[in-house]
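Hello,

Our lab assistant flagged a job as stuck in the queue for most of the afternoon. It eventually completed. Since we weren't sure the result was trustworthy after the delay, we are filing this so someone can double-check. Below is the sequence as submitted and the structure that was eventually returned. Let us know if re-running is recommended.
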Amino acid sequence: MRKVPFSVQILLGLVLGVALGFLARANDLSWLTSTLDTVGGLFVQLLKLAVPPLVFTAIVVSVVSLRGVANAARLALKTLLWFGITALVAVSVGIGLGLLTNPGRGVTLDVAGAAAPKKTGSWTDFLTGIVPTNPVGAFVEGNVLQIVFLALVVGAAALLVGEKAEPFVALNRSLLEIVQKALWWVIRLAPIGTLGLIGNAIASYGWDLLAPLAKFTTAVYVGCAIVLLVVYPVVLLAAGRLNPVRFYAGAWPAIELAFVSRSSVGTMPVTQRAVERLGVPREYASFAVPFGATTKMDGCAAIYPALAAIFVAQVFGIHLGVTDYLLIAFVSVVGSAATAGLTGAIVMLTLTLSTLGLPLAGAGLLLAIDPILDMIRTATNVAGQALVPTVVAAREGTLDRTAYDAAGRRELIDPAPAEEPAATRQDGLTPVPA
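-- returned structure --
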């Protein structure tokens, strides 16, 4: 199988998963559905297992690595600025599509039976939840937002301490390498995980469940497609003078893995490798990608909550005015860190609903199809996380355009063979360690 390109392996897992899912649903094979659920669940669980140490060490190392980057503060500010610009455009697409399609109008659902999800978000919870009461508890509970806060503080402190902190930084670099190596083993299982995740989705969600929400589901996929195929290419052409086809050729392995894994953080090593192969300097990529994997969420935090808020308002018969749409945009741009790179966007949705004063029970109406929506949302997230560092590097004049033009010609999942010297590589790129 190692001779088969990884993307082909993913595609084979996808096709086989769809076939097994239809087989399980058509013949009511509960044992097959349960097996597919277990296989897919184990894959996601393995990804989540690596999240706390990966996020902490990656951000600590990335913050410290800014010491060796010229104009680091300007790069960081420009990265944040482009995060905000693209998020604002994405949420505008979501609002515009919601007003055009009216996804909740005419939908008949059991509103009385809808309940608010157990995990909800509010501005108070979001702000107070950033700072952990117990550092160990943040890791035990897997609270990514709190881990990000701790890592930023520790990384900044290590950066200011300087040489005396080097042993600690070296330890984090070693831990990061170890975690990434283990995570690459998990990523190699993605074709099997794809089979289980897609198969279980097909077996579990039939048309009888999707029919009332078909318009909303279609709107989410169309909105993400507009951002992926229209907005991002325009940004690449206008802001970076870059060929969008080359970008997607280089970023595709990360986007593909994000679609099936539904985890931006779990996809982060592939995203960083893709960004580096696109010609972004490693020192900058090692900061921008981990930061983006936990805060840059155009799918989960912009398109989806905008459409979902309009859907919930229409189902409950609540009118939204111009101020409400401005609030949706504000929440999407400022509060996207609430999603924290994990599967699902319930916290971000409930944060948006609570800000608008909409019933939180409306989120419960969408929980059933959330895994179906989360695939395209996460793929959009990861594409944006790769886009911004590439555009910023291009505008700063630090992007290796030769490497960018050669992107996509090599397999990203497998490192370069050990016997192949860097000087003889056909694409002229420095091998990226696994």
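-- support follow-up --
The delay was a queue issue, not a problem with the job. The result is valid. The two ends are 19 Å apart (CA to CA). Confidence is low (pLDDT under 50) at residues 415-434.
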